[in-house]
Design a protein that fits this description.
By secondary structure, the chain is mainly α. It is built from 20 helices and no strands.
Amino acid sequence: MAISEPPSETSVERPSGLARSAGVAGAATLTSRVLGLVRDQVLAALFGAGNEMDAFNVAFRIPNLVRDLFAEGAMSAAFVPAFTRYLTLRGKPTAWRLGNNVINAMLIVTMAFVAAGIIFARPLVTMYAGDYAAVPGKLELTVDLTRVMLPFLTTVAVATVAMGMLNSLHHYFVPALSPAMFNVATIACAILLVPVMPSFGLPRIMAIAIAVILGGVGQVLVQWPALRAEGFRYAPHLDRHDPALRDVVMLMGPGTVGLAATQINIFINTLLATSQGTGAVSWLTYAFRLMYLPIGLFGVSIATAALPAISRHAARDDLAGIRATVSRSLAIMMMLNVPATIGLIVLARPIVELLFEHGRFTAADTDATAAAVRLYAVGLVGYSAARIASPTFYALRQSRTAVAISITAIAANVLFSLSLVTWLGFRGLALATSLAAIGNGGLLVWFLHRRLNGIEGRRLAIVALKIVTAGAAMAVAAWSIHYSMSTWVTADRVIAQGIRLGAAIAGGLVVLAATAKLLQIAEFNDAFALVSSRFWAKRGDAI
């Protein structure tokens, strides 16, 4: 991949190295996301988009928001650069002490959050979803589910610290696979516990709340053997005077705000959606989870692989290395996410129909969810760009810019949501989130460009134009194939849907690849390496 300013040999990872690392993370993320789709299919078939599912989604949104803001978002941005810096400059013993202190600090803080949340669950849920009181039992069910699921926050906080340590040590597969434990637990409990819950006088959806806790514990347990193999030993001791711990704490405050935009925007969407009638919260939740598949595969996995590299360059004050890594990450991200955006917009309805329209999930639910998918997809590149750019500011120890941009994005989302919900209903909430994500990601990249004295902006603009052209050709091919096959594929309904959708996606990808080669998009090779690296990555990258 051409770059405008060739760095020294030691300053950046090779393009194939970044793609391979991201691909290893992406392979594990793919496994988790596929299991997530199976999970959502099972939940859609069992509960549809009714009151129980609405209650669960709202109840889970509360611990999940705190997790996204505090445990995963701020912790990843603050901890990974600090751990990588100490690992690079001072060695493993100092880094292990930091990891142990952070785990114990997170245990204390999150358990306090959990205790407060359990005590004040009812006023918290009433503030968040007061309209549920109009449906008999719906508010009470939401409160009960919230109390059961709150300890998930503590388990996932420890899992996030473990993930950060392993990523800094070039382990990507197991940490990226760990969220799959949540999906496995949900599927297992849906099959085994949902039918027996009424025998214990409990609502069926309570089985899924139990699964959340089991999944959180599983995320910790699956990573622990890899940490021990690297030499980490946990000790129940907190050194409050550790300067490294103070560094992490000082970054976590602004980090919570700096990475908060998407999570708070989704929280606001859920809050406003509770007033849009039964099903609105569930439609938006199903849609965002479906849209989160490419975010997780192509946004989070690239950011996960890039952040330790960026942090190492930052520890050495190597701006050329940071610039090259960020530019490469953004280019690969666009090569994957722009076609994904176009594909989701064109094929939203057949995708939702095939995946979810079974059992209690109706055709009307499919139409509503597909509409939300299209509007969420608009912001896909913005979401992914923010996942790459925002942590870079924390690695550079310049969090104020990311914080200011995040606050601006949240304010914009509130304004967009209040305006669009009156015009488009729940669909307006999805569009508002996407518009805010585009603004957030765009501003972060622009200010990062200024901070790094350029991120090869002209080259990225040319690459983006080529990718959009290739994506448009892909969309025409995919839509034409799906439309033409709808008149002559007459197999069983589900089989016919699968054949048409599979053919449309395959045909679209062939056209995308051919167009990318014709336009000489070099990033296509890196993107292909990311997707295929699970088959040829070195052992050291694959664990």
